[in-house]
Amino acid sequence: MARKTSNDQDAPNTEGVGEKNRYIVKRERLDHDGESYTFGDSILLNSDQADQLLPIGAIVPEVL
After folding, report:
1. What is d(CA 44, CA 14) in angstroms, rounded to the nearest whole number?
2. Whole domain around residue 54: which residue ranges?
3. How confident is the model over 40-64, as pLDDT tens digits?
4. What is the dihedral of CA 35, 24, 48, 8, to 10 degrees?
5. Quick check: 39 and 25 in contact, CB under 8 A?
6. Angstrom distance (rounded) from CA 22 to CA 45
7. How far is CA 43 from the centre of its chain?
8. Residue in 15, 17, 21 with CA at minimum distance from that of residue 53
């Protein structure tokens, strides 16, 4: 079952897949899992994925 994200796009149900957190893209373009994201887009990533992108400033944690 899909759920709606803050920008009304369907997001896959991540239950049982591991904890994922939401981040904001800080690059003109970011390609991930066959999807393209641009500056300001919201993206769900697990900690391993985020650990690669946070140090280079490609993403920042979303603050609600």
Report:
1. 9
2. 15-61
3. 999 999 999 999 999 999 999 999 7
4. -50
5. yes
6. 6
7. 2
8. 21
Question: Global pTM?
Answer: 0.69
Q: Is residue 56 part of a domain?
A: yes
Cα 51 versus chain centre, distance: 12
**No. of H helices and E strands in the chain?**
1, 7
Domain CATH for 26: 3.40.5
**pLDDT(31) > 90:** yes
CA-CA-CA-CA dihedral for 2, 33, 43, 22, to nearest 10: 80
Please state, in angstroms and as integers, the Cα–Cα distance from residue 14 to each residue in 20, 34, 39, 41, 44, following that order: 7, 17, 24, 19, 9
d(CA 62, CA 46): 13
